[in-house]
Amino acid sequence: MNHSFDALIIGAGQAGPSLAGRLTAAGWKVALVERKNYGGTCVNTGCTPTKAMVASAKAAHTLRQAAHYGLAPVGEVTADLAQVKARTDRIVAASRTGLENWLKQMPGCTLFRGTARFVSPTAMRVGDEVLEARHIFLNVGGRPVKPALPGIEQVPYLTSSTLLALEELPAHLLIVGAGAVGLEFAQLFRRLGSQVTLVERNARLLPHDDDDVAAAVADILTNEGITLRLGAECISLGQENGRPVVHVSCEADSSPSHGSHLLLAMGRLPNTDDLDLEKAGLLADAHGYLTVDEALQTATPGIWALGDCNGRGAFTHTAYNDFEIVAANLLDGGQRRVSDRLPVSAIYLDPPFAKVGLTEAEVRAAGTPALVGKRPMTKVGRAVEKGETQGFMKVLVHAETDQILGASIVGVGGDEAIHCIITAMYARQTATFMRSNMFIHPTVSELIPTVFGELQPLRAELKATAST
Ligand SMILES: Cc1cc2nc3c(=O)[nH]c(=O)nc-3n(C[C@H](O)[C@H](O)[C@H](O)COP(=O)(O)OP(=O)(O)OC[C@H]3O[C@@H](n4cnc5c(N)ncnc54)[C@H](O)[C@@H]3O)c2cc1C
Ligand SMILES: NC(=O)c1ccc[n+]([C@@H]2O[C@H](COP(=O)([O-])OP(=O)(O)OC[C@H]3O[C@@H](n4cnc5c(N)ncnc54)[C@H](O)[C@@H]3O)[C@@H](O)[C@H]2O)c1
């Protein structure tokens, strides 16, 4: 059966539902197609469940520190993973159901369940229904990559999604891939009580970030007893007595890592392979991404790609910002562009690592005349009072224009404190502006003007050093 709409939205992830809300409010007749869970990755298997579990892990960690805070030791802290999961599931379900209820009662929006595939540039099939529209918005997200590691077909493994179904704590979790997924799960499972080994092919953590950031993050992990195996070459998988083994070298005598469970966290693949793109005159790039212009339009007029599937961001905030760009340009006469946004992200370790703009290495590589300000968290009063002094704050400023170039914070509250720098950078403000502001005492943020007041020339011979 054929149905006609003003717009089709494929995927109810982080851009699609909000776009449906804006378009229907403007009087458009909209069809929203979702094949799995409303809320997509972030709500169901990404940000929401992992940050809920990070909170459980933080509570376990704090309990173990009781004596440090002058409290009677609480004895051995053990996690009941089934209960951690139950709490996590409740938080996820509330978020998903809230979204679903909103969409179901949205005037002008018709929901379809199933996989949408193109039949032409202006029509998609979902089961027996053919949905036609002059505007099609793809918000199809991605899924964990299945890497071509030798032995993968013989070894049971977990992904970031299937790991969430565990109700018993892994005795020893082997993780391959030290990206955001690998890092966050490594610390949270260690804190819940698992032994954890993190295997990564790069010689150091976070290769796109500064040496001092990577060193601080490595310290945070190893201080908690996580085994790091960096620079692993020729990673292959095997089994011994039904338990997973990760081989980390081509050398026969290099010791393999043995564990009880194996998590592969080696990136994500866009869900563009089953859209029948060719029927819309589209072709994904070599990594499966849909190429888009600055306004997120694909090569076929009338088709947009938003969120993880366009390769212009891999975060919930970038997917949501994609929605804002598309809605502003279509409905508000805006001329917003993807390149107007700043690169911002956080990894939810404890303490977290948050960043905006350029790294020190990028500033050096560009040869920009720059100043750097850096302060260890041991010199941040609020961090000292909290007893959480790992890490540092670092800011980079253009030596001639005083413009803020970037900042990294590895430290307690860093995921929140970074936002005053993000806002200042978005407003094209300067180090002088940051220094002239008054912040609340006692906070981590209140030291940010101080860091902007301690700027030193970023000399070529100075290397970024680990903060202690
Ligand atoms: C473990 C983990 C933790 C994360 N933590 C964070 C974090 O803390 N902060 C952060 O910013 N980001 C985080 N992310 C990344 C974040 O989840 C994604 O960037 C975000 O969900 C992307 O949103 P999206 O709308 O592009 O896609 P998705 O959320 O993946 O939504 C896409 C939707 O489209 C549906 N779909 C796909 N194809 C079709 C089709 N053909 N027909 C119908 N429906 C279809 C899918 O079922 C899905 O519901 C995390 C990711 C993971 C895996
Ligand atoms: N806090 C957050 O914002 C957050 C949290 C989790 C996930 N995410 C997003 O989810 C996505 C997926 O995260 P991820 O950690 O799976 O991917 P990633 O790309 O961030 O990291 C993958 C890691 O696996 C390694 N790797 C990849 N292929 C390999 C190979 N063949 N052999 C050895 N090592 C290999 C890489 O070197 C890298 O360190 C990312 O885009 C990330 O931004 C974000």
Describe the structure.
The chain is an alpha/beta fold and 468 residues long. The chain folds into three domains: 2-143 and 269-340, FAD/NAD(P)-binding domain (3-Layer(bba) Sandwich), CATH 3.50.50; 152-266, 3-Layer(bba) Sandwich (FAD/NAD(P)-binding domain); 344-455, FAD/NAD-linked reductase, C-terminal dimerisation domain (Enolase-like, domain 1). Helix content is 29%, strand content 22%. The chain has twelve helices and 24 strands. Strands 19-20-23-22-21-24 form a six-stranded antiparallel β-sheet, sandwiched between helices. A five-stranded parallel β-sheet has the order 4-3-2-8-18, covered by helices on one side. Helix 3 packs parallel to helix 5 (180-192). The longest helix has 24 residues, at 81-104. The radius of gyration is 24 Å and the shape is globular. The relative contact order is 0.12. The model is unreliable at 464-468 (pLDDT under 50). The chain binds flavin-adenine dinucleotide and nicotinamide-adenine-dinucleotide (NAD).
Number of domains: 3
**Reading side by side through the largest sheet, how are the strands ordered?**
19-20-23-22-21-24
- Radius of gyration, in Å, reads 24 Å
Query: In the CATH hierarchy, what is the superfamily of the largest domain?
Result: FAD/NAD(P)-binding domain
Task: Indicate the mean pLDDT.
Answer: 96
Q: Which ligands occur here?
A: flavin-adenine dinucleotide, nicotinamide-adenine-dinucleotide
